């Protein structure tokens, strides 16, 4: 008796699937990786293996170079999803008697505030709506008014809406007041320029699986060496102690605890592909082209973006829900999934919405494929237009 294998997660037989048969991930992460990045994982390395230690060293060096931090900054990698390294950054750099001002305009800023609640760190919140960037002038005022604030935390691209925060202007204000800046650049690092030689910060965190297109599994912190040295003893957590992780890794090139070896091998390959694409300029260029195709195509179908183009980062785009009574998001989502494209629900409080990502190993062909799947799906649902209800 022969039996058909069960339809796995990669069964996108009805649509235009990737080379592995998996759907294209137009999401904030995990993201589509290249076949060569996936292949790089097909090895078992011991943590003390000299070849592995060399790959790890090279990865850290490349990440510092991408940040523009050679000579001033160091790279400390950490096991876990992106949130682990955000938590590590806050726990390490904000001392127990410090005070953190958090700029919030979405879920990731809110998450930083929640982490500080767990850790009992003093915070001040400065919040703008999800479709409004952080305000440098308001930050200037807040820092002038409260000398107790030691650190400021900001999100470069707030993935909740896709809004780009004015990081260079914010960094200037923080530096002018002599405070330290901590950046969550998770969904921007590698695609949106942020050079440590021009934009001063004490620490920045990102992960292996967003714009750098590795597999999920590790984050990293780019830290000003002197700030990291001064952070010794601050961490309320052993496994998230970046200073300890750094000191140990500098000593023998090894991770303190089991390293995510496969993830690092994939990341090494992803970083080689990143360089081959032309670094931040090349990667950012492809994402901007993806974003343009997506936004123009969706507008042609009547959809409306949450953000004006000037505030939109080429990372993920938020669209208002259409008002057509035949539109049903679950049906829309499932139909696109069957056609080989995974999109993402909205996470906004200001409007009913959904999101489509531009990042990961996707190009013009995949974006056009997604648009044609969206068009066919709308026709199948009997939806005439993507126009939302008038605000
Ligand atoms: C993805 C992301 C994170 C981390 O999320 P994880 O799900 O923990 O990987 C943090 N901040 C921003 C801005 C992100 O986009």
Overall structural domain count: 2
Low-confidence stretches: 1-14
User: Counting H and I runs of at least 4 residues, what is the number of helices?
Assistant: 12
CATH C-level class of the largest domain is Alpha Beta
**How much helix is in the residues?**
25-40%
Structural class: alpha/beta
Total beta-strand segments: 14
Estimate the mean pLDDT confidence: 95
Q: N-to-C terminal Cα separation, in Å?
A: 60 Å
SS strand fraction? 15-25%
Helix-strand topology string: EHHEHEHEHEEEHEEEHHHHEHEEEH
Rg for CA atoms: 22 Å
The coarse silhouette is: globular
* Strand arrangement across the biggest beta sheet: 2-10-9-8-5-3-4
Hetero groups: pyridoxal-5'-phosphate
CATH topology of the largest domain: Aspartate Aminotransferase, domain 2
Give an account of the 3D structure.
The protein is α/β, with parallel strands linked by helices. The chain has two domains: about 25-35 and about 280-380, Aspartate Aminotransferase, domain 1 (Alpha-Beta Complex), CATH 3.90.1150; about 40-275, Aspartate Aminotransferase, domain 2 (3-Layer(aba) Sandwich). Helix content is about 40%, strand content about 15%. A seven-stranded mixed sheet has the order 2-10-9-8-5-3-4, with helices on both faces. A three-stranded antiparallel sheet has the order 11-14-13, with helices on one face. The chain has a two-stranded parallel ribbon with strand order 1-12. Helix 11 packs across helix 12 (about 365-380). Bound molecules: pyridoxal-5'-phosphate. Pyridoxal-5'-phosphate (PLP) binds near residues 28 and 155.
């Amino acid at each position: 008796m022969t039996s058909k294998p069960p339809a796995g997660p990669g069964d996108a037989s009805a649509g235009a699937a990737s080379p592995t048969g998996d759907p294209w991930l137009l999401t904030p992460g995990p993201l589509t990786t290249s076949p060569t990045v996936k292949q790089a994982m097909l090895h078992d390395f011991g943590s003390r293996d000299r070849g592995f230690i060399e790959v790890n060293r090279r990865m850290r060096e490349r990440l510092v170079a991408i940040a523009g931090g050679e000579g001033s900054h160091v790279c400390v990698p950490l096991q876990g999803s992106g949130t682990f390294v955000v938590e590590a950054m806050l726990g390490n750099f904000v001392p127990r008697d410090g005070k953190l001002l958090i700029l919030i305009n979405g879920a990731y800023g809110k998450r930083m505030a929640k982490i500080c609640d767990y850790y009992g760190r003093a915070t001040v919140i400065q919040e703008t709506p999800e479709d409004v960037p952080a305000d440098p002038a308001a930050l200037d005022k807040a820092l002038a008014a409260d000398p107790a604030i030691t650190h400021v935390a900001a999100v470069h691209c707030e993935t909740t809406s896709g809004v780009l925060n004015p990081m260079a202007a914010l960094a200037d204000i923080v530096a002018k007041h002599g405070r330290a800046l901590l950046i969550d650049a998770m969904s921007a690092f590698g695609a949106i320029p942020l050079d440590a030689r021009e934009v001063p910060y004490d620490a920045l965190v990102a992960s292996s699986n967003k714009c750098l297109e590795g597999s999920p599994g590790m984050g990293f912190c780019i830290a000003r060496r002197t700030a990291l040295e001064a952070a010794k003893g601050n961490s309320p957590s052993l496994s998230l102690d970046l200073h300890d992780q750094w000191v140990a890794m500098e000593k023998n090139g090894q991770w303190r605890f089991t390293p995510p070896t496969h993830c690092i091998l994939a990341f090494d390959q992803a970083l080689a592909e990143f360089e081959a694409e032309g670094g931040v300029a090349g990667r950012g260029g492809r994402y901007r082209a993806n974003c343009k195709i997506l936004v123009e195509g969706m507008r042609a179908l009547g959809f409306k973006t949450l953000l004006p183009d000037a505030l939109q980062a080429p990372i993920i785009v938020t669209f208002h829900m259409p008002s057509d009574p035949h539109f049903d998001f679950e049906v829309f989502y499932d139909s696109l999934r069957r056609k080989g494209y995974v999109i993402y629900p909205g996470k906004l409080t200001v409007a009913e919405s959904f999101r489509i990502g531009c990042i990961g190993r996707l190009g013009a062909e995949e974006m056009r494929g997604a648009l044609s799947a969206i068009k066919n799906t709308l026709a199948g649902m009997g939806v005439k237009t993507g126009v939302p209800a008038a605000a």
